[in-house]
Amino acid sequence: MHELIENPVEEPPSTADEPPGTKADVPAYLWNDWRWQMRHAVRTADQLSRYINLTPDERAALDTPGRLRMQITPFVAGLMDRDDPHCPIRRQLVPTVAEFMSCPDTVADSLHEEEQSPVPGLVHRYPDRVLLLATTLCAAYCRHCTRSRLVGKGAGAGVRDWDAALEYIAAHPEIRDVLVSGGDPLTLADRVLERLLSGLRAIPHVEVIRIGTRVPFFLPQRITPELTDLLRRYHPLWINVHFNHPKELAPEVEAALNRLADAGIPLGSQSVLLAGINDCPAVIKALGQRLVRNRVRPYYLYQCDLVEGAAHFRTPVAKGIEIMESLRGHTSGFAIPQYVIDAPNGGGKVPILPNYLISMSDTHVVVRNYEGMISSYAQPTDYPGHDREHCEYCNGRQGVSALLSGQKDAIRPEGWQCSHVKHDA
Ligand SMILES: *Cc1c(COP(=O)(O)O)cnc(C)c1O
C-alpha cells in the first residue's frame, strides 16, 4: 500500500468537472509540473474535444467500452493536430473503430510472455538478460501497445512483485542485463524507482540496467534534475525511448533527451512500423536523423506484433525491407535501426534485412551495395581458423551458433524423433 501512495499515477483520474487545460490557459508552473500533467491526463471524449475536433469514427470508438483505456497527457494532447485525423501523434493515441475489429491472426499475449515468466513481472527469454515489468501504468497509452493485456488496468500490479523478481535475478548469476519496462517505470515516484534500482544494483552479477520508457515524449517534464541525479548513480544505466515519428520531437522533448544524455545515459530508440503513421522510407530516415541530432541512437524498428487491437496498424514485412533498403548507405550508419520481427510464440527478436550477399565461391564473395554496384571480395586462402586453444573467451555455444562450431550436429524440431526414427516393435 505504501508503494501505491508514493506512485503519483495512482491518484484518482481527473474528472469532467475539472477539465484539463491547454498550454495557453494553464500557469507555466503547473504545466511544467509532471504530477500536474499526470493528474490532468485526458481520459474522456469531452476532455479530448478541448484539444481536437473529434471525427465521428473517433467519437464512436471513445463511446465503446475499450480493451485499452485512453489516456493522453495535456502536453501530448497539445501536440496533436486539431483538424487532421491522420496526424501521426493523434493516430497513435486516439482510439478508432478499427481497433475493435477482430483479426484471426492476433492474440492478447502475442509474444508468449506469460509462458516465459518464471515469477510474476519477469520475463526470462534470453540466456543472459531479463525483462522486468516494474509497473502496469504509463503516462499515456499507445493504441498499438504490445502489452495492452496488462497496462492501464488500475493498481500497478508490477510494484508488488519486485521482491520475487529481485530474488529470481539474484539466484541466477547468468543474468547480467536487466531491462526494466512495464508499463512505464519513469511514471514511478523517484523514491519508488530508486528502491528498485538499488535493489538491482545490490546484485553483483547485474552489470547493466536498462530502462524502457516513453516518458521523454509523453511527459518530458518528468525528466527533472532530481531524476537525472538519481539515474546517474546507477550507471552503467541505458535508456531506450520509443519514438515513431519525427513530429514527436517537440522542443520540450528534445530538451528532456538532452538532460538524460548530459547525465551520461546512452540513449536508444525503439520504433514500431505502423501503417498510416511511419510506413514511409523518408519518415523513418528523417526520424533517425532527428534522433541522432539529439544523441539518441535508433535501436530497433519492430514489425508490428500480432497483438489484439493493433491489426489495422500492420504493414507487410516487405514495407520494412523497402525502408531498410532506403537507409543503409543513404544516411549515417548510426541513424539506422535494426529491423526485427519479434517472433510469435516467444521466438524473440529476429533481424530482417534486404539481401546484400549475391553469391560466393570458395575464393570470392559477391556483394552489392545500396547503389546497385556489385563487387567481389577476395577471401583469404590461408586462414588457419580461430585458435580456440589460446582464446580465454571461447566456451560453450548454443543454438545455431553451436552448429557452426561443430559442438552440435543438428537441432531437431519437437516430435521429429517420432516421425523420422523407426522404432523396433
Ligand atoms: C526485447 C527483449 C529483451 C532485450 O533484447 P535485446 O535484443 O537485448 O535488446 C529481453 N527480454 C525480452 C523478453 C525481450 O522481449
Topology:
Elements: H1 2-6, H2 28-31, H3 34-39, H4 45-48, H5 56-63, H6 74-77, H7 88-93, E1 122-126, E2 129-133, H8 157-160, H9 162-170, E3 177-181, H10 190-201, E4 208-213, H11 215-218, H12 225-232, E5 237-242, H13 251-262, E6 267-273, H14 281-293, E7 296-303, H15 317-325, E8 338-343, E9 348-351, E10 357-360, E11 364-368, E12 374-378, H16 399-404, H17 416-420
The structure holds pyridoxal-5'-phosphate (PLP).
Pyridoxal-5'-phosphate is lined by residues 123, 125-126, 129, 131, 179, 349.
Strands of the widest sheet, in order across it, are 1-2-3-4-5-6-7-8-9
User: What share of the residues does DSSP label as strand, in percent?
Assistant: 15-25%
State the low-pLDDT regions, or none: 1-17
- CATH topology description of the largest domain: TIM Barrel
Would you give an account of this structure?
The relative contact order is 0.09. About 30% of the residues lie in helices and about 15% in strands. The strands form 2 sheets. A 9-stranded mixed beta sheet has the order 1-2-3-4-5-6-7-8-9. The chain has 17 helices and 12 strands. The chain is α/β, with parallel strands linked by helices and about 425 residues long. The site of pyridoxal-5'-phosphate has 7 residues, from strand 1 and strand 2.
